[in-house]
Amino acid sequence: MNMPAGALTIDKEALKRKYAEERDKRIRPEGSAQYIRLETEFADLATDPYTPLVPRDPVTDHVTFAFIGGGFAGLVVGARLKQAGIDDVRIVEKGGDFGGTWYWNRYPGAQCDTASMIYMPLLEETGHRPSEKYAHAPEIRDHCSRIGETFGLYGKALFHTEVTGLEWDEDRKVWVVRTNRGDAFTAKYVGMGTGPLHVAKLPGLAGIEKFKGKSFHTSRWDYAYTGGNPEGAPMTGLADKRVAIIGTGATAVQCVPHLARDAKELLVFQRTPSSVDRRDNGPIDPDWFAQVAGEGWQRKWQDNFAANLGAGFPNEDLVNDGWTDLAKRMRANLREVPPSEWTPQTMMAAFEDADFEKMEQIRRRAEELVDDPETAEHLKAWYRQLCKRPCFHDEYLQAFNQPGTRLIDTGGKGVERITENGVVANGVEYEADCIVYASGFEVSTDYVARAGFDAVGREGQTLSGYWGKGMRTLHGLHIRGFPNLFMVQPAQAANFIANVPHNIVDHADTIAAVVGEAERRHAATVEPTAEAEQAWLDLLATAPARAIGGTECTPGYYNNEGAGWGDEAPLFVGHPGGALGYFAHIDAWRRSGAFEGLAFG
Ligand code: NDP
User: Fold this and answer.
1) Which atom of ligand 1 is nearest to the CA of 561?
2) Mind listing the domains of the chain with CATH numbers?
3) Mean of the pLDDT values across residues 51-58?
4) Residue 251 Cα to ligand 1 middle (Å)
5) pTM reported for the whole predicted model
């Protein structure tokens, strides 16, 4: 069937064939094993370039609540616990300060991709007005410090510290937390918020260790070498350098314009182009903000965004961005179908049509903005928008018009190897002074491998063992056999990936409520019942299949590099009612005060 997209007519069948061809070119038998770990393979490249390590004595005390990870999850949970009167909260963080992914990612141009009004947590509680619709990383990092300071989370925090062991002591009813700094302290409750994007990976390329020039991963940007700073000052150190950047994902899209501006020459090695839609960033007007920011404003905005991405027909779109645009197109297509004919199939067809139109527009954007037609052609993304992380940027495509910047497209094959002098692709050696690896983070490795420890619960049960056949939780948060432990992550809960902090704030509300209740009851433990956990999994089994991560997509971390998620796929879902369904369910659950499904002991 053909369909119009603006002035163009889309041949849907031809497009589907093209998508399949482009995907097939990129399937690699080694899947996720094509990557190597920065930390283990190149320890010197993995060290923290931002904060010196301060020696300290091991900690052996007791706290009421320990949280593993000092990103948004730890900060927001810590804040809510403090508000609930739990004073001794300890955050353990491997970076040198709070921030998590925003601590490490200081590459030039780093910026949030979801509107700051809904993305930056606790704006209302901290009284901060974001400066831009999409805040840049330094402002987000400052905001992390602001949350830490506002809620007194610095005092007990342990930075540059990685948890190496977490074990439940049934006699004392405490968790014993061990770290790589020799700490062995106890905590009544533990939260885990180690996030999916904190273990940096490199392509496992032959010769990678042989390169004689400078190289670094984008999450360890070496400003001492490049000059400049995270605020975007010119990188004067690159003025006489030929820089190669490997990778064209969300990170590269943000830093390429800066490298194109400052390097003498820039070579961008591409395996798969990103879809790069318009960004439309701009300052937030203080007068407008003062009018908008009445009591409860941020929750209202977050809920409105979730509603716009949900199944209903909300009558206003407060955020108005690339995410809600796609949803609005889908709704518009659906409105053309009489409600009596709405079925899961017609909904999926409306979604597919909206996606085809959107991607066609994005491909046309490359033609419009890139001077060289061949380069423009190579920058076109041939897959559905949610097959890979959608990107939004107003200077990325134009960067290829800079005289010193060249796209080295590899036709889906990728860089072949690294030599002493540079990068080999398409059989050609390209010499370079510096190689920047914009090669992303581990996502598809198992949770324990990424966290660096395996929690040991009641009767010596390990989390990896308990989850041997897939993740099992109540509400995505509580795990049977692991008392007083809370897992802060989106799956089996709202699973609202377009605005992860919304999931986090909601989980933090639940944790504060549950801990508050346990303390009121003088309970030593709180844990889900086996029946409640199973009933929750049964409910999740009625949820629609994941909208992202299918094997029909071009490979990437969304679909485990093309291999898909196998038997575990049905477990990586959210509430059958979507994000809003989950938020409403859990709000009612919290308000009822019954804490149904949890056993207090
Ligand atoms: P990604 O995993 O998205 O990208 C890695 C890139 O490296 C891909 O383009 C990949 O190509 C490429 N690559 C890997 N091996 C080779 C090779 N041998 N030759 C050439 N290219 C290669 O990592 P990012 O750091 O870009 O992004 C990770 C995630 O972090 C994002 O998806 C997003 O969730 C988050 N992020 C969020 C931002 C925000 O909110 N503002 C900003 C930046 C990142 P291929 O596609 O073919 O696999």
Assistant:
1) 48
2) 12-41+200-279+351-437 (3.50.50.60), 62-199+443-600 (3.50.50.60)
3) 94
4) 6
5) 0.94
